[in-house]
Amino acid sequence: MKIKNESDLKKISDKTKDALVSSEVRIHVGTATCGLAKGAHLVKEALETEVKNQKLKAQVVEVGCNGMCHHEPIVDVIQKGKPKITYGPLTPDQAAPLVKAIKKGTILPEQVIFRTDEEENLVTGESLNYSPGEPAEPVKKITEYRKHPFYQKQQKIALRNAGRIDPSSIEEYISFGGYRGLAQALNMPPEKVIQEVITSGLRGRGGAGFPTGAKWKACQEAQGTTKYVVANGSEGDPDIGMHRSMMEGDPHSVLEAMMIAAYAVGASKGYIYISNNYPLALDKIREAVRQARDHGLLGEKILGTNFSFEVTVDQGGGAYVCGEETALITSLEGSYGEPRPRPPFPAQKGLWDQPTVVNNIETLANIPAIIARGGSWFSSIGTKGNTGTKVLSLNGSIQNSCLVEVPLGISLKEIIEIGGGVSTGKKLKAITIGGPSGGVLPAKSAKLSLTYDELNKEGSLLGSGITVIDDEVNMADLAQYFLTFFKEETCGKCTTCREGVKKMSEIVGEICQGRGAMEDLTLLERMSQPMIDGSLCALGKTVPIAVTSTMKHFKNDYSAYIKGT
Amino acid sequence: MITLTINGKKIKAQAGRTILEVARDNDIHIPTLCYSDALKPAGNCRLCTVEVICESRTTLETSCNYLIQEGMQVETASERVQAVRKLVMELLLARCPNPKKLREVGFEVGVDAVPPQFSLENEYCILCGLCVRSCSEIVQADAIDFEGSGINKKVAVPFNETSPDCIGCGSCVFTCPTQVIKMQDMDDAKIIYVEGEEDLGPQRMMRNWKTELNLKMCKGCGNPLAPEKQLTSLRDKMILPMEFFDYCQTCRAYPEIDEEKCLGCGGCSDNCPCCALELKEVEKEIKANCYTGNCTGCRICIDICPNGAIS
To answer: Which residues have C-beta within 8 Å of that of residue B34, sequence separation ≥ 6?
Structure first.
């Protein structure tokens, strides 16, 4: 059905909510890439078979990633009048006993992770109450979601719907408050929308941390015949899957955010740039675009207003450098993804020289919530100047590799604890944030708080991946790993970056092979500032940090190779 | 007009100009490798980096493509700038140790030796892109471009096959700072098979672009003029008569007008593609006159004259 106005949205929302509430049993299977990698599709098939064979009146629904990648395949069971029970890891052969347990009204105690009594809908502010009153035994003994050590310190804004809704259902997205932010935005003048974003204090989540509201304002004020909004989903860091989870679990939130941005700046065309490393995310986003179009939420006169917007999904080749906004624009235009000098900035002259807003997928995911709940609400989360939350992929020598969302200002130590702490039997040596571009921080940095300001001061950046490094790793080897990555990913434009990374990689390589000398360290130091100064973009400017940060905090690791110990 | 400071010197310049252009206008030297004032700047070599202070914020930018701003302060030889230039040349010399130009520029910025830890390659191309830009912007043939990216980047022809678009003009040869692009003219090219041989005649070889082009010979002296493709392309672009390039500069003859036979009809001046002929008054009569500065010896006028007055 075509959604022509806000009341149509409400009709769908009410209808879907009623269906959800009245359904007897609803079983979620987490089939994002992380789940699929652990065989979640087989679990889903097994559950569907068992539900049929055991004649259970139940829906088996595919959902996105809930962040607990270490417990995949994840299965949620929602039974009328009972708390939501989350199981994991669940294997296909456990499908039969699970369905049996559901029929009996009991649980599978071995596989239970947590229960959820009440879920807050972030956009509407409403509470979804799964079971009124205290649950009975044995459910009572299961840890409740909000007290679970994994979720206790998390706060889901960007990932509010991931793992909770069927990403292939626009109706479910709407029933969870989807497109309500857009409806609200369209009822305000564009300047007020921008003001809400400015008030929220939202800063770019791609690492640079530029105030999003200021970027939108600059684009709105710029002169051009056509304005564009571009969603940067070209996540190319080797250690993270944050954009992937977001796009696989809640693709419509990206679309809705782009529409709000487009309305605010005066754009009528958008591009979603997704790396071809993420085939499932590409599928989900394309599906969401088709659905939105079929429902009249893309095209002319959206929600009965004069606002028109169309979107094209562009598949990138997977180059890391295309995460840089000007390289992304160049790639969208059909050329090699090579960065361009700024000024002029994309907000003034971007895609085809027109005013363009390029926003990171995570930055955008926050927008519908900000508009629905207000900029002040968002700015109350986190700390001053560093408001809101950050989605992080935790990996490395951590007990549980997982995906979390935490308020800014939380300490790195607490984040590592959310992931279960350093792997058993290992000792914390270093932390990297922001992948190869963030350099390394020594173990004592665990007390630092996750803010742009504090991390930038330490020479790091607020990236999307935190990797825990244990003391079995020689940091010179880690530097070499980063340099090898940069060697693959440099676009090759600037002499300082292209030739510099080749030479740095060779020199560090020789050191790691035991053929280095102390003069090599002096040379590496000497090279780093000119490489930063001489390179055009953030890639070239962060290559040397892999070397300088490891040398600063872990010089002994380099010396160990040189002295041949 | 914009007022800016370069190396402490206050300068007035027009908005829309780059730091490099303004520096050159004021005899302030900034070394470059990938820059040509005939082409759009690229910012590839990074040699022209300068320190820019704008509203108390210091950044390092390439001067070839950075537009001047009111109140900007530029330092063209600060320590940071010199360190960039030195590293750029050390890196380029490690990549391309042989080209004379690189050694000259290296010497200029204080590089006499490449650090021993830098392994030496045997490249000649510094990926400045001057050849690509000349071919695209001036010649408008777009026969060559960068291929691959990152550390494997190089300049090539599409699919590494003979170029359908190269006209053998040699602009790329002319702009290449390391002279790695070569053009070779051969009087008598031959293909030799086991069974025999095939005469190809005069050819221009653009070996870098895997392209050989037939050379057009002068109708007068029989010497090679230029590649046929180049002449055809120029002729078509500028809509010139078919015979326009039939004669070389030496053999090209200019019309001689026999004033006795000239009827002053204006047929020659009307049909001259170069406006080299006009009618003027000679002793109270109208006669044709040739301005040889414009004439290219195409001989259209000779054929057109109804009275055979031009030879």
So the answer is: B42, B43, B44, B45, B47, B64, B126, B128, B129, B130
